[in-house]
Specification:
This protein is α+β, with helices and mostly antiparallel strands and 376 residues long. Helix content is 23%, strand content 53%. The chain starts with a helix and ends in a 12-residue tail after the last helix.
Length: 376
């Protein structure tokens, strides 16, 4: 009964595909900002403990509801609050899979104005695919249409290339006339290569208002439970360097820490916990300026905390679980051996009765009885 219930829950989860994301951004700049001032201002800086505050909270969740073998509906909700202001949205979607090589989807979002969105995907050739999307947002100021088209080309078994064009427009009324402005526009090319030994992503975007280049390198370790990730992004907005590690702590859980250093974002350490399809993200903004103190503590404190927790809590629990599993297998093997022994004794008893019957019959008719035999 329990196995049937677990299978039914797993089947329902696979069909609904629930996903959730929680993010809590903490402003911890007061911890290191006091190092920016000269010692002559020590009397003006409060001597109490540093003050931390939550600058942003966001929560989103989504599920899918299969209607038929080709049609499915989706529901998504999200809320967020930042600096005393909150907003939220609710999205309903409908997706139809036409064939194995094409599908289309439409969504309606209510929140910051009404948003109508549609997506289309189709395979053009054996290794060539196209993905297009368009949206229309109805806001107080006017209309905000957006369009994006992407070509996907599988270059080989491990390499995929993308060429994407996107644009965002604003249509509004001013002085009895309608004006249309282009808020964002860009052409982007991306190369992704994934192998068993490394992963590499290269991206270049030329556009308005942002033009940038980005490179991401990931390296899994030999045990395949953890990997290293390094990325660098530079453009008209500045430059950002990220480095971090992720480790699989249980069968369904992954824990990671990433340092983000750059201009004008400053220094931020991001802790991420992934449990199945649930994501919990905790960014700690350490400093608005690039300094050695937040870099050092943001890099080594999470590592030391992780190794301490791993050695004192996780590894003993894992060892205890393995020992419990070993004892369980031993008990199961004992039961199997005892059952096999009982079956062997029963067979021997049956063979003993047969042996006695054959001996009696041979003695009565003065037949052949083998007393001793050597094989081989």
């Amino acid at each position: 009964e329990n196995l049937a219930r677990v299978r039914e829950e797993r089947r329902l989860q696979q069909r609904t595909n629930p996903n959730s994301r929680f993010e809590c951004r903490v402003d911890a700049t007061d911890l290191f900002d006091r190092y920016l001032y000269d010692s002559e201002y020590d009397d003006l800086i409060p001597s109490d403990l540093p003050h931390f505050e939550v600058s942003r909270l966001s929560l989103s969740s989504s599920i899918q509801a299969p209607l038929t073998n080709t049609d499915s509906a989706s529901l998504k909700g999200s809320i967020s609050t930042s600096n005393g202001q909150g907003n939220g949205s609710f999205t309903c979607g409908y997706k139809r899979i036409n064939t194995e090589s094409s599908w289309q989807e439409g969504t309606v979002t209510v929140g910051n104005g009404l948003v109508l969105d549609s997506r289309f995907y189709r395979r053009l050739a054996n290794r060539l695919f196209i993905n297009m999307s368009g949206s229309m947002q109805f806001s107080n100021r006017g209309l905000n249409p957006a369009f994006s088209a992407s070509l996907e080309n599988h270059l080989d078994r491990h390499t995929v290339g993308y060429l994407t064009y996107s644009t965002n427009l604003s249509i509004y009324e001013e002085s009895d006339r309608y004006l249309m402005e282009e808020d964002e526009s860009g052409m982007e090319t991306t190369i992704i290569r994934n192998t068993e030994n490394y992963g590499l992503v290269g991206r270049l975007q030329l556009g308005i208002p942002y033009t940038y280049a980005m490179a991401v390198f990931t390296k899994p370790f030999k045990n395949k439970k953890n990997h290293l990730r390094v990325s660098f992004k530079a453009g008209t907005f500045g430059a950002i360097l990220e480095y971090g590690v992720e480790e699989k702590i249980t069968e369904h859980s992954t824990l990671g820490a990433t340092m983000e250093v750059g201009y004008p974002v400053g220094v931020t350490v991001r802790i991420k916990l992934k449990r199945s399809s649930q994501n919990y993200i905790f960014p700690f903004h350490l400093s608005d300026e690039i300094m050695m103190q937040p870099l050092f503590y943001g890099t080594f404190v999470p590592l030391m905390a992780w190794f301490t927790i791993k050695k004192l809590i996780l590894e003993p629990r894992e060892a205890a679980a393995k020992e419990k599993e070993r004892l369980r297998r031993m008990e199961a093997n004992k039961e199997k051996v005892a059952e096999a022994k009982r079956e062997a004794l029963a067979s021997c008893n049956l063979m003993t009765e047969r042996f006695r019957r054959i001996m009696r019959e041979e003695d009565e008719k003065n037949g052949l009885v083998i007393v001793f035999a050597i094989y081989g």
